[in-house]
Amino acid sequence: MSSAPDTPVAEARADILARIAAAAKAVGRDPASVTLTAVSKKQPDDRVEAALDAGQRVFGENRVQEAEARWGERRDRVPDLELRLVGPLQTNKAEAAVALFDVIETLDRDKLAKALVKASKKTGRTPRLYVQVNTGEEPQKAGVAPGDVVDFVDRMRDEHGLAIEGLMCIPPADEPAAPHFALLAKRAAECGLDKLSMGMSGDYETAVRLGATSVRVGSALFGERPG
C-alpha cells in the first residue's frame, strides 16, 4: 500500500494521530481505542479529498442537507466511509439523517427519538446513537442536562427501544474542558456506556486522557474554514 500523499491535511492528520496515541499511552490506553472523526463541515472539497487520500474514513457533519450534497456520490466511491452527524437534528430531517448517517451523536429529546424510530422502520437503517449532554447547562445549547442523563437513557431504551451507544458533549467555550469530560465519563459509567464522543481541535488530547473513544477535529486537521 502506497504512503499517503504529502499534503498539509495528510501531515496534520499524521500529527493528530500521533498526539492521540501519546495521550492514550500516557494513561495506559490502547491508541486504537480512539477514533478520529474529521469534522468536514463547510470545508472545501479539495481538503476533504486530501483527507480521504490520506486514509481518513470517519467524517462528521453538522447539517443533513450539506452532508447529502458532499457525500452522496462519495458514498458509492468510498465503501468503507463512516459518516457521523455531530450537529443538532430537527425532527423533520430525521428520515434523511437515518438514510445517510451511520452514527447520530445528537439525540436529546423524546420527540426526536420517536422520529428516529419511525425513520428507521421506513428506511430499514439503524444508525448508532449517542445522547448529547449539555454538561455546562447552557440555555443556548442543545443536550440533556447532566442530572437527567441516566433517566433519559433508560427511557430511550425502555420506551423507544433504542440502543444507545454512548454520550457526546460540547463543553462551554469559556471554561476548562477537563471537568466537563470527566462529568460525561461519570454519567456514561452510570448508564453502563463505554463510548464517549468528546474533544475538539483545542482539547482532544485532554479528552483522550479522560476516556474519549472518539474525538471531533476540524480546524486542526483541515485548517480554518474559508470565510
TrEMBL record:
Which NCBIfam families does the record match to this protein? YggS family pyridoxal phosphate-dependent enzyme
Query: What is the name listed in the Swiss-Prot or TrEMBL entry for this protein?
Result: Pyridoxal phosphate homeostasis protein
**The keyword Lipid biosynthesis belongs to this UniProt entry's keyword annotation:** no
Q: Which cofactor does it need?
A: pyridoxal 5'-phosphate
Q: Which SUPFAM superfamilies match?
A: PLP-binding barrel
**Which residues belong to any copy of the Alanine racemase N-terminal domain?**
48-226
Give the record's keywords alphabetically.
Pyridoxal phosphate
Originating organism = Marinicauda salina
Kindly indicate whether the keyword Ribonucleoprotein belongs to this entry: no
